[in-house]
Write a structure and sequence with these properties.
The complex is a heterodimer of chains A (325) and B (770).
Chain A: E1 5-8, E2 21-24, H1 30-35, E3 43-46, E4 54-56, E5 62-65, H2 70-75, H3 77-82, H4 84-91, H5 96-101, H6 104-109, H7 115-118, H8 161-167, E6 171-176, E7 179-184, E8 207-213, E9 222-228, E10 236-247, E11 250-259, E12 266-267, H9 269-275, H10 282-293, H11 304-320
Parallel strand pairs in A: 1-3, 2-3
Antiparallel strand pairs in A: 4-5, 5-8, 6-7, 6-8, 9-10, 10-11, 11-12
Chain B: H1 2-13, H2 48-52, E1 68-74, E2 80-86, H3 88-92, E3 96-100, E4 134-135, E5 141-147, H4 150-157, E6 161-166, H5 173-176, E7 185-186, E8 189-190, E9 193-195, H6 198-204, E10 207-215, E11 227-233, E12 236-241, H7 246-257, E13 264-267, H8 282-294, E14 298-301, H9 304-310, E15 317-325, E16 331-341, H10 354-359, E17 364-372, H11 387-405, H12 409-415, H13 433-444, E18 457-458, E19 461-473, E20 481-487, E21 492-495, H14 505-517, E22 524-527, H15 544-567, E23 581-584, E24 587-590, E25 597-599, H16 600-607, E26 611-617, H17 623-626, E27 630-642, E28 648-658, H18 665-684, E29 690-691, E30 696-697, E31 716-720, H19 743-755
Parallel strand pairs in B: 1-14, 12-13, 16-17, 21-22, 28-31
Antiparallel strand pairs in B: 1-5, 2-4, 2-6, 3-5, 7-8, 9-17, 10-15, 11-12, 11-14, 15-16, 18-19, 19-27, 20-21, 20-26, 23-24, 24-25, 27-28, 29-30
Classes of the chains: A alpha+beta (325), B alpha+beta (770).
Bound molecules: flavin-adenine dinucleotide.
Residues 22-30, 32, 47, 66, 70, 93-94, 98, 101-103, 105-107, 109-110, 158-161, 207-208, 235 of chain A line the site of flavin-adenine dinucleotide.
Chain lengths: 325, 770
């Protein structure tokens, strides 16, 4: 732990982090990483005083302030009614105490749980120290990627909430000294490539202001299923966020986002494409997710995720096809 | 912790000439077994309100005048030496008083290794502590920074620069097997047991199973982190510790730092969990040394990561269990061999074959353990060492055999229960294992089990039932002194340097004292946790309760004698001899004529005394030499396995125990349930991720090291035969570790019953069931 400065932001304009400063949400991730010597901010700019409003938007969607606590989002009536999948995803994460502290902005920006990333004292990590090497490759890879990894980095993004947001086509509203902009969640996270230290498309001096979701056609016909090593309080080995609508027994719209498999929530676009316009039989779902998995590249130690993704996706979608939206 | 038994027995062997007392064949059982009043009641813990309201402090909440704070620096390499160590920046940092390294650490010998015969030793590692630049395992302490505040110390620790020269390290279990050592004895027992020709019997057996079972490393995760506050005053040393070895720690520190034993005081009133992990490790020595160098009191609290780095845990193991049986299922061959880790500087052999010796009859036996050397923090005892993983292997094998034979696994066990110790031929002191099984099976509804695996399904969930046996040896420690003070107001105080680690020691001994002295429970206070009190042995091997019962019982005898002397000629009991009176109803009473009674108040008043104090030690535990003494369990499990994801959800656990008198059903149930939850963790979630490439533990936190969460823990029912052991104090045997063994096998066997998949490697994570 190093001495740090601390300031509380009163407005968005007041909240653009200077060099070496970090935004502080609930601190449930950042403070841990500071203790471990992974993060060394010169100062902490507390953004929990910014908007935590959860409000319906004119288009039937919802806007959630970045400072909204995870537990508040999961408990909000509009979230539960319109986006039950999001509430379930949040409640599947962490513990009640952590969710009470954690903010939406912090949740999106939380860092990977790769053990080698967290071990600043004893392990090499290209994400933490670019160019130093990756000790995860050849090590414990149970929580690591099967999609979109690189020889530099095989880490996954750990957020459950973000997986549901990906399936819901959420957008991230950000602000910086140059003004505001909106980033589709699908473009928010970067794959590691040769710069695993660059995790999102958010600028260094930008801040997440809110997350917006368009009206969802799914509501009831959506689900979040998280598969993990204990019944609660464990990160996802694999998770599936899915929604489906049928017309005349044929898939009209479908969303499948996978967690625990990549450096970002993995929208299974290929599987979605394959399923659209077909009858969602078990075989059709299986074929679709198998097509998606064709591009998976598991590591020694996490090969089981291929089968786990396949089975979980089939189970989730086959249950949803009988459920009215 | 059979090491305790080891020590107890070896010291007993030296005193064999001593007069046998009531626990021996020639003696009659403890008369109090028949006269329980407070004993046997579900009394709530006396420390409960303090704990629930946060007023039972952890050791590092202690604040002494002038106290400073220490932070440890751990090696990040596994083998090698420190080439360069620059502490200039750290020393210059605000608030820093001292950076202690091998260069300025006082020259100290090796911590006396826990060998409990003399109560002078509590160490777990024979490695020197910061005496040289050598690094011998990953995470070893290489420096300590002391500052005015914890934050200053933590910060300064980041400023110490260390360069290492790395050397090759032995970190791979499989590679190290080639050089495995074979010890002559495992604790008290001969290591190699060979009866008949077990391999030949196995080959010619009608039914046989022969498999290898693997269990991972585990780390200690007591809720209270290890911590110490140490202060020197001249050559007097005061240590606040969180320890299950108060007196041995005081004595070991005295000899290490070259001061008289009376000069060292160790205080540890409440221990937030011990489980075998709270003996002596490097942190006490470093803190005491730092306090001496800094000339100020020093507090050190290990971080959770620090606990993983410098406190050993359960060894990983690979066990072969082969059982051959005749057509009726009677065992003809029992083979149990294997490998676990024990570096040469450690002492804890992970005695997974000891339970096997007493569990079942067999025509032939072949038992031997081998140890591989790795460069690691030495492994140590962890709740129910040996038996936990041994029972997983043996009880899985029994289930496999039952399946091969198409016989009910409970029935197979019952057919092979011994009526005396299968190897030594010694009689059991008390052994109602058969009843524990049948009562447990009945209560659990075992008859509902479908023998054919994979046949019961509820939606995506496959349901299964399984069972497994556990056992734990009885141990009573010599040297359990108890000081008993009876006051004129009719109250009594029991004190001893024993340990309250949350299991209810003070409560149960108060209940015991009430019955032993014939006083109301409210009149008894029990004081523990301070080496200034009369000496008590370590809390380990589930032996503390019976050891203290024996000590208190001896003290009560002395009190009786003293009161008889004080009663004088005017007493209603005048003229009676010690054997003719007993303590009851708040006084001395004639055994032959209960109408002759003299109250404590009256006796003390007449004698003009405010109080009477006696101190006595429990008799030597000779009963352990005469009898085979074990507690046993039959564990039952019902669970579901998702046919989609392989996730296991345990719906129900039941433990049926045969463990002597239950002194307090509430605290006993807590111990047994807690033990069963640890068994559940070992079965499904717990595993230290030890990176064999480097020798470094990669999940040193409760977020990443998975102990069961609340949602993983099902309703757990516990029951017991309640039959007193006629050869023990109060008829009781230890129960602190009995809950764990057998649970992992019951779960693995239920998983097999649910799915038809046999998992022989713990933990049973979902990938093994896909
Ligand atoms: C033991 C444990 C278990 C957990 N289990 C799960 C789990 O199962 N599933 C899951 O999804 N999560 C889990 N989590 C993670 C938890 O969800 C995150 O720690 C939490 O969401 C982070 O939110 P925060 O507000 O505390 O972020 P902070 O720790 O305050 O910040 C995290 C990051 O976000 C940045 N940040 C904060 N606000 C903004 C903003 N407005 N704009 C831009 N950047 C911002 C910070 O600078 C920092 O880099 C777990 C955490 C712990 C400690």
């Amino acid at each position: 732990m190093n001495p740090v400065q601390y300031r509380r932001a009163e407005s968005v304009e007041d909240a653009f982090p200077g060099a070496q400063w970090r935004l502080l949400g609930g601190g449930t991730n950042l403070v841990d990483l500071m203790r471990k010597g992974v993060e060394h901010p010169a100062g902490l700019l507390d953004v929990t005083g910014l908007s935590e409003e959860i409000a319906a938007s004119d288009d039937g969607g919802l806007v959630i302030g970045a400072a909204a606590r995870n537990s508040a989002v999961a408990a909000h009536p509009l979230v539960r009614r319109r986006y039950p999948m999001l509430a379930r995803a949040i409640l599947a994460g962490a513990s009640a105490q952590i969710r009470n502290m954690a903010t939406v902005g912090g949740n999106l920006m939380q860092r990977t749980r790769c053990a080698y990333f967290a071990d600043a004292a004893g392990s090499r990590c290209n994400k933490r120290a670019p160019g130093s090497g990756c000790d995860a490759i050849g090590g414990f890879t149970r929580y690591h990627a099967i999609f979109g990894a690189s020889p530099e980095c095989v880490a996954t993004h750990p957020s459950d909430m973000a997986v549901a947001l990906a399936a819901l086509d959420a957008r991230v509203n950000v602000a910086g000294p140059g003004g505001t902009r909106t980033i589709p969640l699908a473009e928010f996270y970067r794959l590691p490539g040769d710069r695993p230290d660059l995790e999102t498309t958010l600028g260094a001096d930008e801040i997440i202001v809110s997350v917006a979701m368009p009206a969802s056609p799914f509501a009831g016909a959506s689900a979040y299923r998280k598969v993990r090593d204990r019944a609660s309080y464990a990160f996802a080995l694999v998770s599936v966020a899915a929604g489906v609508t049928l017309r005349d027994g044929v898939v009209d719209d479908v969303r499948i986002a996978l967690g625990g498999v990549a450096a970002r929530p993995w929208r299974a676009l290929r599987a979605e494409e394959t399923l659209r316009g077909t009858r969602p039989t078990d075989e059709a779902i299986d074929a679709a997710i198998t097509a998606e998995l064709a591009s998976a590249e598991p590591l020694p130690g996490n090969e089981f995720k291929i089968e786990l993704v396949r089975r979980t996706t089939v189970a989730v979608l086959s249950e949803l096809r009988g459920t009215p939206a | 912790m059979s090491r305790v038994q080891n020590a107890a027995i070896s010291s007993v062997r030296t005193v064999l000439g001593w007069v046998p007392d009531r626990w021996l064949p020639s003696g009659s059982p403890d008369p109090l077994i028949a006269r329980q009043q407070e004993i046997g009641r579900p009394t709530s813990r006396v420390d409960g309100p303090l704990k629930a309201s946060g007023r039972a402090p952890f050791v590092t909440e202690t604040v002494l005048a002038g106290q400073t704070y220490a932070t440890l620096i751990h090696s990040t390499i596994t083998r090698g030496r420190i080439l360069r160590l620059d502490s200039t920046a750290a020393e210059a940092a605000p608030g820093v008083l001292l950076v202690m390294t091998y260069r300025n650490m006082p020259r100290l010998g090796i911590v006396p290794m826990a060998s409990l015969t003399n109560l002078g030793a509590a160490g777990n590692s024979a490695l020197p502590i910061m005496q040289d630049p050598e690094v011998r395992y990953n995470g070893q302490v290489v420096a300590a920074v002391v500052a005015e505040t914890q934050e200053q110390a933590d910060h300064a620790a980041t400023l110490v620069e260390i360069d290492y020269a790395q050397e090759p390290a032995a970190t791979r279990f499989e590679d190290a097997k080639a050089g495995a050592r074979t010890l002559t004895s495992i604790l008290i027992e001969r290591n190699h047991v060979s009866v008949g020709d077990a391999e030949r019997e196995l080959r010619s057996a009608v039914h046989a199973v022969d498999n290898v079972y693997r269990t991972p490393r585990h780390n200690h995760n007591a809720i209270e982190l290890h911590g110490v506050v140490a202060a020197w005053d001249g050559d007097a040393l005061l240590v606040h510790d969180s320890t299950q070895a108060i007196v041995p720690t005081a004595n070991a520190l005295a000899s290490l730092f070259g001061v008289a034993k009376e000069k060292v005081r160790v205080i540890s009133p409440y221990v937030g969990g011990g489980f075998g992990g709270k003996m002596m490790w490097d942190h006490q020595v470093v803190t005491v040394a730092a306090a001496r160098l800094a000339g100020r009191p020093v507090r050190l609290r290990l971080t959770r990561e620090g606990v993983y780095r410098i406190i050993g845990g359960r060894s990983p193991a690979e066990q072969r269990v082969a059982i051959g049986a005749d057509a009726d299922g009677r065992f003809a061959a029992m083979i149990h061999t294997g490998y676990s880790v024990m570096p040469p500087y450690g002492r804890f052999p992970e005695q997974y074959t000891l339970g096997t010796r007493a569990a079942y009859r067999s025509k032939s036996f072949e038992i031997i353990q081998r140890h591989v050397d790795l460069d690691i923090v030495p492994n140590t005892f962890m709740r129910t060492p040996g038996e936990t993983i041994g029972a997983f292997a043996v009880e899985s094998a029994v289930d496999e055999l039952a399946h091969v034979m198409d016989l009910d696994p409970v029935e197979l066990r019952l057919r092979n229960l011994p009526d005396r110790h299968p190897l030594s031929g010694q009689p059991f002191s008390q052994h109602a294992v058969h009843q524990a099984w049948t009562d447990g099976a009945e209560r659990f509804g075992w008859s509902r089990r479908q023998a054919k695996p994979g046949t019961v399904r509820d939606g995506e969930w496959l349901t299964g039932l399984g069972c497994g046996a556990g056992s734990f040896p009885y141990a009573r420690m010599p040297g359990a002194n108890v000081r008993l003070t009876l006051r004129r107001d009719g109250s009594a105080e029991v004190s001893t340097a024993a340990h309250e680690m949350g299991m209810g020691t003070a409560t149960v001994q108060a209940q015991h004292a009430a019955d032993r002295l014939g006083l109301p429970l409210e009149q008894i206070t029990v004081t523990l946790g301070d080496s200034a009190l009369v000496a008590a042995p370590i809390a380990g091997g589930s032996s503390q309760t019976v050891s203290l019962v024996a000590g208190l019982s001896a003290a009560a005898d002395d009190l009786r004698d003293e009161l008889l002397r004080l009663a004088g000629p005017d007493s209603p009991i005048a003229g009676l001899k010690a054997a003719e009176v007993r303590l009851a109803d708040g006084g001395l009473v004639s055994v032959a004529d209960p109408a002759r009674h003299d109250g404590y108040r009256e006796i003390l008043a007449r004698a003009g005394r405010d109080e009477v104090t006696v101190t006595a030690a429990g008799s030597p535990p000779l009963e352990m030499l005469k009898y085979s003494m074990h507690s046993s369990s039959a564990i039952f499990c019902e669970l579901r396995v998702s046919a989609v994801t392989g996730e296991v959800r345990v719906d129900r656990l039941l433990g049926s125990f045969d463990c002597g008198t239950i002194l307090n059903p509430k605290t006993a149930a807590g111990q047994l349930r807690g033990g069963m939850i640890m068994g559940l963790g070992s079965a499904l979630t717990e595993e230290t991720l030890f990176d064999e490439r480097t020798g470094r533990i990669m999940n040193p936190s409760l977020a990443d090291y998975h102990i069961p969460a609340h949602l993983d823990v099902p309703p757990i029912e516990v029951m017991w035969t309640g039959i007193p052991d006629p050869r023990t104090p109060m008829g009781a045997r230890g129960i602190g570790e009995l809950g764990t063994p057998g649970v992992a096998a019951a779960i693995a066997n239920a998983v097999f019953n649910a799915t038809g998949k046999r998992v022989r490697e713990l933990p049973i994570t979902l990938d093994k069931l896909l």
